[in-house]
From TrEMBL:
Residue ranges, annotated region (Disordered): 407-447
InterPro entries named in the record: Dispatched_Hh_regulator, HMGCR/SNAP/NPC1-like_SSD, SSD
Entry GO MF terms: transmembrane transporter activity
Location of the protein in the cell: Membrane
UniProt protein name: Dispatched homolog 1-like
Regions that span the bilayer: 226-247, 253-272, 284-307, 327-346, 358-378, 486-506, 726-748, 754-778, 785-808, 828-850, 857-881
The entry's keywords: Glycoprotein, Membrane, Transmembrane, Transmembrane helix
Length: 901
C-alpha cells in the first residue's frame, strides 16, 4: 500500500530533528534571491512582496497603463488595505503598485502626483528593456545603460506586478497586481473581507478589484464558513423531518429517526478514536452526516410502510406478529442496502490517499451502527407508539361512530327514503371514520373522510389523503401501465447509460485536477479567483528555476514506514548499510561515470548555474591536492575541511546537491539534476517525466557497483502522486463496491437473475450519474473521488428494495410480481429519494464548495437512481423477470418470508 507522499518528506523530518546535517561546496550557486535596493527606490526586499503581502488584482477591460487607471489603483489600494502600523514589518512598510513604483523612480511625493510623461517614460523603458529581461541579459555588456541603471525597476515590474504576456505577446496591460506587505492577522484580514469584498467589489473609474489573497486566509474563512453554511444541510434535514412527520403521522418516529442519525455519528466517532486508534480526523468525515440522513430516512420510510402493511395483512394479529412480519420484510431490505452502502464506503480503504481512506472507515462504520439501531432501537420505538395508540384508537372509533350515527339519523329524518326503498341504518364498521385503508395493489395508506372537529387537522387530513391517493395511483395504476412499453424504456435507458459512459471515458472525459491549490469555495467566489484564474498569469509565485529538478539519493533507503492512516507521520529514516563511498569501484562510478550518464538522459536540461556535483567534488579533491582516485578516508576528510562550509541543508525546490552527515561520517549524498521539463501541473507532461526517471533508475542507478548501490531518483511530485492515485484508487474502489453489492444481492435474494439485473442497473446508473457530473465540469479531485466511489452505495438502495420485494412476493407471474413490488416499496422508495433530493437542493445554495458539490451529487444520484430502478429495473423484471423457482441458487426455503396479496 502506498501513500500520496514522497520519501523526501522522511528525509526532511530527519534533517529538521537534527538526525542529519549537511555540507556543500561554497562555490555552488544559490537560488535564494539577494536583497535589492535601488538608491532612489524605497521598496522592500522582494521576499516580502512574494510571500508576506496582501495581493490584490485589478482589471478595467482595457489597457491599464495610463495615468487615470494607475491613480485609481493606488486609491483603491488605500481603501482596501488600510494603514496598520502594528502589522508592518520593521524592514518593510511600503506598498507596491505600478503607479506607486513610477512615482518613486520619478521622485514624486505620491502616486497621485505622477504625470502623463512619467507614465509614458516608464512604459517606453519597459518596452526598450523587455528583450534583455526575457533573455536574462540584464547584466550583459550589450545591454543599454538605461536598462542597467533601472535594473531593479524593470525586474520588479516584470517579476511582480505585470502579467507573463505583457511586453512579450502584447503591449496592452490587461491585469496588474498591487502588493502590501503585512504581518498576517486573521482579524485584520477578515475586516477587509467583510467590509470590502463580501458585497459588490470595489471599483473606481472603471478599474475593478477582481481577486484577493493574503496568506492562508482562505482556509481560515473556510473553517468559519463551514459552520455558517451548515444551515443549508440543517434546512435539508428539517425538510426531511417534516416529510417524515407527514408520512408517518408521528412526532416520535421523526425523533427516533433523527436520534438514530445523531447517535450513529457519536458512536462511530468513539469507535474511530478509541477502538481503531485513529487520531487524524479529516474534514471529509463531517460529510458522513449528510449521507446518513438520506440512508436513515430511506430505512425509516421502508420500515413504516411495511409496518402499515403488516397491520393490513394480519388485521387480528398481535404486535408481536406485526413486528415479526415487518422485520422479516423490511429487515431484509434494510440489511441489503445498509451493507452494500457500507461496503461502498469501506472500499475507499484501498485508496492511497489518507483522507479518502479515513473517510471510508468512518462512514462505513457509521452506516453499520445506524443499521443496528434501525433494527433494534427504532422497532422498539414503533412498538411503544403502537401501544400508546391502541387505547386511544378504540375510544376515537367509538366516539366517531356515535357522531357519524347521529348525523345519519338526522339525515334520515330530514330526507326519508321513498317507499319500498328503505335502507337499514348503517351500523357497520365501514361507516366514514378516520381510519386507514389500503388499496389492493399498493397497500399504501390512504385516509378517508376527516373529522369535523378541528380545521387545521381537517386540512392536514385532506392534504394527506390527496397525497396518498396520488401515490397509490402512481404505483398502482400509472407506472404498471407505462411498463407495458418496456422495450422503449429498456432501449432508452441503455442508450443513456452508454452515452454517459462515453462522456466519462472518451470525451470530454473525467479529467484529473489541473490546479495544485485546493479549491474550497465556488469558482465565482472572490477568495478563489486568484488561485483559479490569475496565479499562473503572473511571475509572483514562480521559483527562480522554472523547470523541474530530479534528485538522486545514495545511502538512504526509499522506504515509507510511517503510519498510513496519519498524513503527518513519515516514519523513521532508514540508511543503506551497504553504502560506502570509500570503495574504489564506487568512487570511480560516482565521480567519473555518473555525470556523463546524467547528460545522456532525455529529461536532462543544462543551465548556466548548474555544475555536476560529482565532477566538482572530484576536481577540488584531486587537482588541488594532486591526489588520484580512489581517495582514502584521511584524504576525504581533509578535502571536506578545506572546501566545504557547514550550512543548512538545501530545500527540495532548489538546484543544490548535498552531503548528509552523522558526526564526521557521510551517511548519504544527493545530486540535483536540472531537466528540460517546465514546471507544470499537467498530468501527461509530468507522467512523461516520471517514466523517464524510472528508466534512468533502471538503466543507470540499478547498475551501480557495490558500495553505492540502491540509489533512487525522484522529483518534487506530490501533486502528480495525487493525480495518479486519484485515478487508480477511484477505479479500484468502484470495482470493490460493485463486486460486494453483487455478492450481497446474490446471497440475500438467492436468485442470480435478479442479481444480474440489479448490477446492470447499478452500473448504468453509476455511468449516467458520473457522466452528468463530468458534463457539469467536475474534475477528479479528492471530494469528487469519494462521491463517485460512494455513488455505488447510494445507487444500489432503490434497485435492491425493488429486487427483494419482487423475490419475496407471493404473486404468480412476473407482471403481478412487478405490480406487487411497486406497490409495497414504491411509495417508500419515492419518499426516500424525494427527501434526499430536497436536502441536496438546499445544500446547493452554499458557498462552500464541498456542500455545493455534495448537493449537486445528491440531487443527481437520487433522481437518476430512482428513474433507473423504477423504470429500467422494473422493465427488465416485467420483460424477463424470474418466475417461480427460476434462477434460484438454493431451495426456496432460503426465503423465509412471503408477501401475501
Amino acid at each position: 500500500m502506498k501513500r500520496v507522499s514522497t520519501h523526501q518528506d522522511t528525509l526532511k523530518v530527519a534533517i529538521r530533528e537534527g538526525e542529519l546535517t549537511c555540507e556543500y561546496q561554497t562555490g555552488t550557486p544559490k537560488t535564494g534571491r539577494s536583497r535589492r535596493h535601488s538608491q532612489n527606490l524605497p521598496i522592500c526586499d522582494t521576499v516580502y512582496y512574494r510571500k508576506y503581502s496582501v495581493v490584490t488584482v485589478y482589471e478595467s477591460g482595457g489597457d491599464l497603463f495610463n495615468i487615470n487607471d494607475l491613480k485609481a489603483i493606488c486609491e483603491l489600494e488605500k481603501r482596501i488595505v488600510p494603514a496598520t502600523p502594528e502589522l508592518l514589518y520593521d524592514q518593510c512598510g511600503a506598498s507596491l503598485s505600478l503607479g506607486a513604483y513610477i512615482a518613486s523612480i520619478r521622485n514624486r511625493s505620491s502616486c497621485q502626483d505622477i504625470t502623463r510623461g512619467d507614465v509614458s517614460n516608464a512604459k517606453h523603458l519597459l518596452e526598450t528593456c523587455a528583450s534583455a529581461y526575457f533573455t536574462r541579459k540584464m547584466s550583459a555588456a550589450s545591454t543599454r545603460d538605461e536598462c542597467i541603471k533601472n535594473k531593479d525597476f524593470i525586474q520588479n515590474v516584470f517579476g511582480l506586478l505585470v502579467g507573463i504576456d505583457f511586453m512579450r505577446n502584447t503591449n496592452i496591460l490587461k491585469t496588474t497586481l498591487a502588493l502590501s506587505p503585512r504581518k498576517y492577522d486573521v482579524g485584520f484580514t477578515r475586516r477587509i473581507y467583510e467590509q470590502r469584498l463580501s458585497g459588490d467589489l470595489p471599483e473606481q473609474n472603471g478599474v475593478k478589484l477582481v481577486a484577493f489573497k493574503f496568506d492562508h486566509f482562505k482556509f481560515d474563512q473556510f473553517n468559519r464558513q463551514l459552520l455558517i453554511d451548515a444551515i443549508f444541510p440543517a434546512l435539508g434535514l428539517l425538510m426531511i423531518a417534516i416529510i417524515l412527520l407527514i408520512y408517518t403521522h408521528s412526532v416520535l418516529i421523526m425523533v427516533l429517526t433523527l436520534f438514530s442519525i445523531t447517535t450513529s455519528i457519536i458512536i462511530a466517532y468513539f469507535i474511530y478514536h478509541q477502538i481503531f486508534r485513529l487520531t487524524f480526523f479529516p474534514f471529509l468525515n463531517i460529510l458522513t452526516f449528510v449521507f446518513l440522513v438520506g440512508i436513515c430516512a430511506d430505512d425509516a420510510f421502508v420500515f413504516n410502510d411495511i409496518w402499515s402493511q403488516a397491520k393490513l395483512v394480519i388485521p387480528n394479529g398481535s404486535i408481536i406478529d406485526w413486528i415479526e412480519y415487518t422485520l422479516n420484510h423490511a429487515g431484509l431490505s434494510m440489511f441489503v442496502t445498509s451493507f452494500t452502502t457500507s461496503a461502498a464506503f469501506y472500499a475507499n480503504v484501498v485508496s492511497d490517499i489518507t483522507s479518502i481512506r479515513l473517510f471510508g472507515i468512518f462512514a462505513g462504520t457509521s452506516i453499520l451502527i445506524m443499521y443496528s439501531l434501525m433494527i433494534t432501537w427504532f422497532p422498539a420505538g414503533v412498538v411503544f407508539i403502537e401501544k400508546l395508540r391502541q387505547p386511544r384508537n378504540i375510544v376515537a372509533k367509538t366516539v366517531e361512530f356515535r357522531e357519524n350515527r347521529a348525523v345519519e339519523l338526522e339525515t334520515d329524518e330530514a330526507n326519508p327514503p321513498p317507499d319500498g326503498d328503505q335502507t337499514p341504518p348503517n351500523t357497520d364498521a365501514t361507516s366514514p371514520k378516520t381510519v386507514v385503508e389500503h388499496t389492493p395493489d399498493t397497500g399504501f395508506p390512504t385516509a378517508t373522510k376527516p373529522s369535523h372537529r378541528s380545521c387545521p387537522f381537517k386540512y392536514y387530513s385532506v392534504v394527506r389523503s390527496k397525497c396518498s391517493k396520488f401515490m397509490s395511483d402512481i404505483f398502482g395504476k400509472w407506472i404498471p401501465v407505462s411498463l407495458r412499453g418496456y422495450p422503449i424504456w429498456l432501449v432508452a435507458f441503455v442508450a443513456l447509460g452508454i452515452g454517459m459512459a462515453c462522456a466519462v471515458t472518451v470525451s470530454p472525459g473525467l479529467q484529473r485536477p489541473k490546479s495544485s491549490d485546493f479549491q474550497l469555495f465556488a469558482s465565482s467566489h472572490i477568495l478563489e479567483q486568484y488561485d483559479l484564474n490569475y496565479k499562473d498569469k503572473f511571475r509572483l509565485e514562480l521559483t527562480t528555476e522554472n523547470n523541474f529538478y530530479v534528485y538522486v539519493f545514495f545511502g538512504i533507503r526509499a522506504e515509507d514506514n510511517g503510519n498510513y492512516f496519519d498524513p503527518k507521520s513519515f516514519g523513521d529514516l532508514h540508511y543503506d548499510n551497504s553504502f560506502d563511498i570509500l570503495r574504489p569501484a564506487a568512487q570511480k562510478w560516482f565521480f567519473e561515470d555518473l555525470c556523463s550518464d546524467i547528460r545522456q538522459q532525455t529529461f536532462f536540461g543544462q543551465n548556466n548555474s548548474w555544475n555536476c556535483f560529482p565532477e566538482v567534488f572530484k576536481q577540488r579533491c584531486t587537482s588541488s591536492m594532486n591526489w588520484v582516485l580512489p581517495l582514502n578516508k584521511t584524504q576525504l576528510d581533509q578535502c571536506l575541511k578545506l572546501y566545504y562550509d557547514q550550512q543548512s541543508c538545501p530545500t527540495f525546490s532548489s538546484a543544490r546537491s548535498s552531503l548528509y552527515f552523522q558526526g564526521d561520517k557521510i551517511k548519504g549524498i544527493s545530486v540535483a539534476i536540472p531537466t528540460n521539463i517546465p514546471l507544470t501541473n499537467k498530468y501527461e507532461t509530468v507522467d512523461g517525466l516520471w517514466n523517464s526517471i524510472e528508466d534512468f533508475s533502471s538503466n543507470v542507478l540499478d547498475k551501480a557497483p557495490e558500495g553505492i548501490q540502491n540509489g533512487w531518483a525522484i522529483s518534487w511530485l506530490h501533486f502528480y502522486a495525487l493525480q495518479e492515485n486519484l485515478g487508480s484508487s477511484t477505479i479500484t474502489s468502484l470495482g470493490v463496491s460493485l463486486a460486494f453489492a453483487f455478492c450481497v444481492m446474490l446471497l440475500t435474494s438467492m436468485n442470480w437473475v435478479i442479481s444480474v439485473y440489479a448490477i446492470v442497473t447499478i452500473v448504468l446508473t453509476l455511468a449516467t450519474t458520473t457522466g452528468a457530473l463530468v458534463l457539469a465540469g467536475w474534475e477528479l479531485n479528492i471530494l469528487e473521488s469519494i462521491v463517485i466511489s460512494v455513488a455505488v452505495g447510494l445507487s444500489v438502495d432503490f434497485t435492491l428494495h425493488y429486487g427483494v420485494a419482487y423475490i419475496v412476493s407471493s404473486k404468480k407471474g412476473r407482471v403481478d410480481q412487478v405490480k406487487s413490488a411497486l406497490g409495497h416499496v414504491g411509495p417508500a422508495v419515492t419518499l426516500a429519494a424525494l427527501t434526499t433530493f430536497i436536502a441536496g437542493v438546499f445544500m446547493m445554495f452554499s458557498t462552500v464548495l464541498a456542500y455545493c458539490q455534495l448537493g449537486q451529487f445528491l440531487t443527481l444520484v437520487m433522481a437518476i437512481s430512482w428513474l433507473f430502478a423504477t423504470f429500467f429495473f422494473m422493465s427488465l423484471c416485467y420483460f424477463a423477470g424470474p418466475v417461480g423457482h427460476f434462477g434460484q441458487i438454493n431451495s426456496t426455503k432460503c426465503l423465509s418470508c412471503k408477501v401475501v396479496g
